[in-house]
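User: I've been going back and forth on whether these two constructs are worth ordering. Before I decide, could you fold them both?

Assistant: Sure. I'll take them in the order you sent them. The first construct and its structure tokens:
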Amino acid sequence: MFARHWILLIAGLLAAPSFVLDAASMRAVAAAAALDEEEVAPPADGKVVEISILKLRAARYRPGQPLPKWISDLDGKRVRIWGHMAIGTLEGLEAFELVPESCECNRSKLNHFVDVTLTEGQTRFIPGRITLEGTFFAGEKEEDGFVTSLYRLTTTELPR
């Protein structure tokens, strides 16, 4: 009986971090609701708009539903965005995923990454945070009947 209580105590301690994460997730959802209404000033005279990958990640997405207006207004605009190359980025290709944190890998949710295409360069893995400037595209992109991305960025090459 005594050992059973220890097992339950240990199980409770192990479960506690997931409760904390759930509470954090709830706060993120509330923040995302506020961000959905946020306006992004359109660029004047072809200037670059600074956007946050964290705000993109927090945006509410429902399949088949329109993206928040502040995101759809960025479609086709020149933007500057920072992030990290997804772990497992292969070198020598023209595309990779930009993610908010260096430890993120795989495509957990469609609004958690930006598909980056290089028009003049090839990928080489760059550890740490990078800043990219290019043309941003927002909206569902389908391949073989599946939505594969929401956010895309076309840029010339990686930073030196």
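The second construct, handled the same way:
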Amino acid sequence: MLRNLMIAGFGGQGVMMMGKLLAGAVCTSTDLNVTFFPSYGAEQRGGAANCYVVISDEPIGAPLGDEMDELVVMNDTSLHRFLDKLVPGGVLFTNSTIVKGPIDRDDITVIEAPATQMALEMGSPKVLNIIMLGVYIGYTQAIGEDLMLEGIVQKLGKKQKLIPLNKEAFAKGLEIGRSYREKE
């Protein structure tokens, strides 16, 4: 089993945190191998940001980023820049509140979630990445939902007041991801 994932967006959208949370949960809660490789421009907030997460039951070499099985895009810029890296049969996850560009491929599965809108309705734009993480986990089952939630709670350990909102955001994302999986 080998899973190549890229998460891409603007700095400030929680792209790196999403990748770190996933990689951390896989590392501490499973016997799978994982690597996390961040990439971002000089400006962190508002500049381009992306990361690679590779999960495998075999040893992992360096993540090359040439071909992705799964791609999470948080904005149109990332969609246009990285869509061609998604392999035929791959899965594209979009933050449909912001990603409005055409997806001119019929050889991939597209999972849409209005993550920014949902986060704003919940009162905090900072949870949009947790919503998207929930969508990803709900659809792919890359790691057990409970294990991923434990990783989120552990990361927020010192910020107890943020845990209920993040749990709610993750649950809302899971619902969307599961609903797409059930349609197949």
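Notes on the second construct follow. Residues 2-183 form a domain with the Pyruvate-ferredoxin Oxidoreductase; domain 3 fold (CATH 3.40.920.10). The longest helix spans residues 163-183.
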